[in-house]
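Margin note: ligand = zinc ion.
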Amino acid sequence: MTDVPTADQIRRAPKVLLHDHLDGGLRPETVAELAEQQGYDALPATGSDDIRRWFAAATEAGSLEEYLERFTHTVGVMQTAHAISRVAAECAEDLAADGVVYAEVRYAPELSTLQGLSLDEVVEAVLDGFRRGAAKARAAGNRIRIGVLLCAMRQELRAREIAELTVKYRDAGVVGFDIAGPEAGFPPTRSLEAFEYLRRENCHFTIHAGEGFGLPSIWESIQWCGAARLGHGVRIVDDIEFAEDGSAQLGRLASFVRDRRIPLEMCPRSNVHTGTVPSVAEHPIALLRRLNFRVTVNTDNRLMSQTSMSDEFGDLVDAFGYSLDDLQWFTVNAMKSAFIPFDQRLALINEVIKPGYAALRSEAVFGPVADHTPALA
Ligand SMILES: [Zn+2]
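Resulting structure:
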């Protein structure tokens, strides 16, 4: 079908999110309330409206530094188990309300230890929040399965410790590992020992690469560290050239990424806001989709980028005229690329995602049906 999906259909379509930062997705009113409860007075605005506006201004930042400044304050109010659990619960509820049926949300536990929480306590608070949030969402009729990716900060030297924490909690809701933070100057091989440890432990991990730095970062992530997915990976286009007839010529690294079906966790709005890409319409996601890379669509930071999965899909529909078939393709790509066991990914694809899109397609023909929310196993 070629009909353009409506905003309402996009919201109701089952969606899968692999790249979302817990500290980038707080509700502004929660930031305001937690700051007040905790006597946190470093916020540059007071009251949830002003706080919302200040965070929204990050979308005009145009520089990574100004964009990243916002995280000082979200992390600033995430220093108690209660606060972290609340933020995680609201994250699960917000994603479920937006039609996300499966999510992997990432967080660097070392960021929440400023007031004495241990790394274990931070992880347990996140897991507790996700459990509570998913249960509350379910009671409201929105089913979501949500797991945690633990991040190490690439400028610090705690990657091995966080990798061990990932293995420790892998049967309790932690689904994998990542490194986050400044990419330029902190290549992934700096954390090589942690990646080698995770590989010996048969543990899944992704790496932020090809956002703030180019091909060498992507190459190290895949060929040295063994990343299963690439966080962003947008700069892989630097290894694609065009012949005079317009046909694309892939370099060896781009070919490898495509041949091995290495998932690209693309975050269009975030890339625009950090100045990586001039606009969504100029985002290489359309080219990479056309060339059949395993592209997925993600939010990165819902608060700082004023976005949601529905907004990201809506932008792509507006910019590239994508249909429900395209949105299903991105969604199935993401589900195939998740870090939960393969049989569980298949169950979500066959029992939730495909029936969900099929119902939306039939709606385009027969008109809306009362409730086609598919049951989630
Ligand atoms: Zn990210």
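The chain has a mean pLDDT of 94.
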